[in-house]
Amino acid sequence: MFYTGCRLWIIARQKREQQAGNPQTRATWLLSCLTTGCITGCITGIAILLLCAPFWPLGGTYAQASLVYYTVFLLCMSLAFLLRENQRDPLLFCVAGCANIAIVPAVLIAMVEGRAILPSLGVGMVALVLGCFLLRSVKRSTCRLSA
User: Fold this and answer.
1) What pLDDT, on a 0 to 100 scale, did the predictor assign at position 106?
2) Rounded to 10 degrees, what is the CA torsion of 123, 38, 45, 139?
3) Where are the domains of the chain?
4) CA 56, 104, 1, 89 torsion: positive or negative?
5) Which has the closest alpha carbon to 44: 3, 87, 102, 95?
6) pLDDT band at residue 11 using 50, 70 and 90 as cut-offs
7) pLDDT tens digit string along 15-63?
8) Taking burial as the number of CB atoms within 10 A of a residue's CB, which of 15, 39, 52, 78 is the most buried?
9) By the 8 A CB rule, do 68 and 48 touch?
10) Backbone phi, psi, residue 43, to 5°
11) What angle do CA 17, 20, 21 make, to 5 degrees?
12) What is the pTM assigned to this prediction?
């Protein structure tokens, strides 16, 4: 809901700025980058943690988890500021979707190696649904943009 609300506000603001004949303001651009970067950074960071945790001894330490999560989060934030508006959302949401889909094979491998238990497969299935939803939403939004 946070992302949708911010996105609707940003789109409305961009339309008002265009109707007034003004270029996009720095504040609108900044909020757009922060919104997409934060959301995709959180989703991708958690997915990468779920990918790594079964392969760390005892699930990893707080320091390991923090390092991985914040590295991924900052990468997504950096990409949000470096990419153009029309590239930012599709690319970052595709990365988040693929990271979530990759959890299923990682869980299956961890289960075969005895590093994960059966309920982990449930987490993998939820991540698979989320990943498919993210990829589908990217496809639908790019179809609408190109039409």
Assistant:
1) 94
2) 60
3) 2-146
4) positive
5) 95
6) confident
7) 888 888 888 888 889 999 999 999 999 999 999 999 999 999 988 899 9
8) 39
9) yes
10) -60, -45
11) 90
12) 0.87
